[in-house]
Amino acid sequence: MSNILTINPGSTAVKYVLFNEGGEELDSKVFDRKSSASISEQENDWVLSLEKVSKISIRVVHGGDMHGPVILDNKVLSAIKDNTIFAPIHNYFALEVIEFLQSNLPSANIIVSFDTDFHKDMPVKARTYPINMEIAKKYNIKRYGFHGLVVQSVLAQAQSKLGKLPNRVICAHIGGGTSVTAVLNSESVDTTMGLTPLEGLMMITRSGSIDPSIVGYLVEQTGKSIAEVMNILNNESGLYGLTGSKNTLDIITRASKRQELEKLAVDMFVDQIVKQIFAYYGILQGCDLLTISGGIGYGNAYLRSRLLSQLEIIGITEGKVFVIQADEARVLFEEATKL
């Protein structure tokens, strides 16, 4: 019997889960994101386990209009490379992992699933940006949406628990990356992340949506390049930019004790999530179920209580909330079995 290895290179960690063909989890490891030199060190911890691997299923955040699951070939690899500009935190790391796998496990089929897949059929009105249509078409500028594997996982788990998935579901994934997705009849109708995972809500290190003029203003005032300013927005903003810390548990603890900077950061964070849930309540014309996932959302009762206290007015109470730890590895395994 051969095994299937799933790999999830996230913004803060890389997660490996080994399954047998029957779907039984055999082993798992999680590594903090380190330098590229550490990739081989991480993978080498799996030498014995990988001997019987026939398929490797990997999450890639952005493939543009490429959809999965799909067996990796030169066309798929080119799509990943071409769209790295839109997801630099994730795609570069995924490419490093793929390069190592191709060199060290040449006989294994590498299967790619994209985080954009779940949103590929979003309505045109949700996918389209209000910019010059000719420019948008020429450069393929549109809202792709991300965290698709997360949404697939939480919906599957909700359906398993409830027996039937409600029609109107709002999925809030609150972790290293944070997004909210509106789901109608099991399909994505809108989501906060767009052309890149930088759009939408503030996150641990990402600014989320800001006045776009800020980019040009900073370039003019600081002399920094656009790439340098974008690096600030991706890696030096959000909760980290406001507090100087990436330890969300510490930030939330300090906020609950009314430490000034931390309280400001958490107040902003909660309000942004609440505003987006309200917006999707309007688009869906109601909400039958709210799912909360992600390391911060799933793992912190204080933050959830803050959210729910502001959502009661639209009837979203604990009875309508499903708090769940997303299992992207299970989705990756199931995707691999399709090919």
List the helices and strands and how they pair.
Elements: E1 3-9, E2 13-20, E3 25-32, H1 38-44, E4 53-60, E5 70-71, H2 74-82, H3 88-104, E6 109-114, H4 124-127, H5 133-138, H6 148-162, E7 168-174, E8 178-184, E9 187-191, H7 213-222, H8 226-235, H9 238-243, H10 248-256, H11 260-284, E10 289-293, H12 295-299, H13 301-311, E11 321-323, H14 328-337
Parallel strand pairs: 1-4, 4-6, 7-10, 10-11
Antiparallel strand pairs: 1-2, 2-3, 5-6, 7-8, 8-9
User: Mean pLDDT, nearest integer?
Assistant: 92
Give me the count of strands: 11
Cross-sheet strand order for the largest sheet: 3-2-1-4-6-5
For this structure, the CATH topology of the largest domain is: Nucleotidyltransferase, domain 5
- How does the helix and strand content classify structurally? alpha/beta
Distance between the termini: 17 Å
The CATH class designation of the largest domain is: Alpha Beta
What is the succession of H and E elements?
A: EEEHEEHHEHHHEEEHHHHHEHHEH
Shape: globular
How much of the sequence lies in strands comes to 15-25%
Percent of residues in helices comes to 40-55%
Question: What key phrases describe this protein's structure?
Answer:
single chain; about 350 residues; alpha/beta; Nucleotidyltransferase, domain 5; 14 helices
In short:
The chain has helices at residues 38-44, 74-82, 88-104, 124-127, 133-138, 148-162, 213-222, 226-235, 238-243, 248-256, 260-284, 295-299, 301-311, 328-337; strands at 3-9, 13-20, 25-32, 53-60, 70-71, 109-114, 168-174, 178-184, 187-191, 289-293, 321-323. The protein has 339 residues and is of the alpha/beta class.
